[in-house]
Amino acid sequence: MAIKTQYQVKKNWMGDPCLPKESIWTGLQCRQDGVESKIISLDLSGNHFDGTIPQALCTKESLNLRYDTNDGDLCNGKSPKKKNISVLTVAIVTPIAAVLLVSAILIFCFCHKKRKQQMTLGLVHQYSVQPTGISNSVSHVDIKGHVLMSDDHEFTYEELVKITNNFSECIGEGGFGPVYLGQLQRSIQVAVKMCSRKSVHGQGIKEFLAEVDSLKTVHYKYLVMLIGYCTNKNHLALIYEYMPNGSLFDHIRGKKANVQTMSWLQRARIVHEAAQGCVLPIIHRDVKSHNILLGEDMHAKISDFGLSKSYINEAQTHISVTAAGTIGYIDPEYYFSSRLTMRSDVFSFGVVLLETVTGEPPIVPGVGHVVQRVKQKVSDGDISAIVDPRLEDAYDIGSVWKVVDIALLCTREVSDDRPTMTEVVEQLKHALALEEARHIDGHRDNGQGSIKPDLSANWGPLAR
């Protein structure tokens, strides 16, 4: 009984193992040598021992010892229980480890994607502000003061009719369609851009959805804010904050240019602010003077991201379409690559800079492109031959030269040779500072406006 208890044997092991013969222990074979009985065979199979067989039994030569191979090597100290525990441990730990590994990979991928998004938007956040009179939580209300727009920013067509007084005042016409003046509650004015009928279907819808997707969550200081949109079956519309002072084009070549000449200080400040709108990791596709709008106090913002695309990696991200931008502003590389990148916007902005300096259109029939026209005059070092004559030498020469220089760098034919918009912003900041210093110093004399440029100077035209 003690043996059975000690080794937890499941057989009928009680009393003398070999006697009487009728009660020999199960699994034993005995041999009678006179009055003595000897155990000659011991079968331990099927007991599932918790432990090992004593060495006294394992080393007994006259004993035929048998046990299950599944129980382990019981004579060498390898317990079957330990083996079972080891197998069980592996069976449990392996799937847990696999789940943890997969979870870690998924978390890493999510965090990596989130980080890329944060990197993409991190730069723009430093410029973000809310337009005056428009809050974060409620962007507009109807005539009765009820909230019309929640986080989805969507208007109904009937609401647009009320806002625009049945589309009574058209304030412009663009590639997307006519633009109407609208008014929300509390006298908040908005610009309602209606999609023209001819572009409601096909590519027009794609362009509309692209603009909404890009801008419905964007609130940046140097971008015209998208307040809402309408996706009525027969009417598509975008509702923007209203910019009361028109566009840069209006003031240098349009309807307002003949009323009052925009000063060089104003021009330098406007292009510096507009450049900051183009720093954002978004491909605009149609940077031009028409799309630089002026709000209160003549502060500039970039508008019309109708064909824009979020930008992550310039080497991988591009837009391939049949047409892009406005003639005169389009990157020359686009004509043979059908690709637009951030450097394409840099080229377009360079054209805007030259347009701002000269007061001339990008292309003059019979004369050529503004880039070629300015390059021909740069070598003479006569800034007055380049600058808008309406300015009448009321500018800092160094400031103008710096803008011309950065403009020609922006409009280099090979896109990789162009500066980044961040570099452009920094140079325009210096140009603006020079002109501001002129005003602080009491409008110091500019001389005759004609000098031979010092190619080693920081503000003059660089060697090309």
TrEMBL record:
Any one GO molecular function term: ATP binding
Listed InterPro entries: Kinase-like_dom_sf, Prot_kinase_dom, Ser-Thr/Tyr_kinase_cat_dom, Ser/Thr_kinase_AS
Signal peptide: none
Transmembrane segments: 87-108
Annotated spans, Disordered: 442-464
Boundaries of every Protein kinase domain copy: 165-433
Pfam families: PK_Tyr_Ser-Thr
Entry keyword set: Kinase, Membrane, Receptor, Transferase, Transmembrane, Transmembrane helix
Superkingdom classification of source: Eukaryota
Name of this chain's protein: Serine/threonine-specific receptor protein kinase-like
Species classification: Eukaryota, Viridiplantae, Streptophyta, Embryophyta, Tracheophyta
Gene: OSJNBa0042H24.46
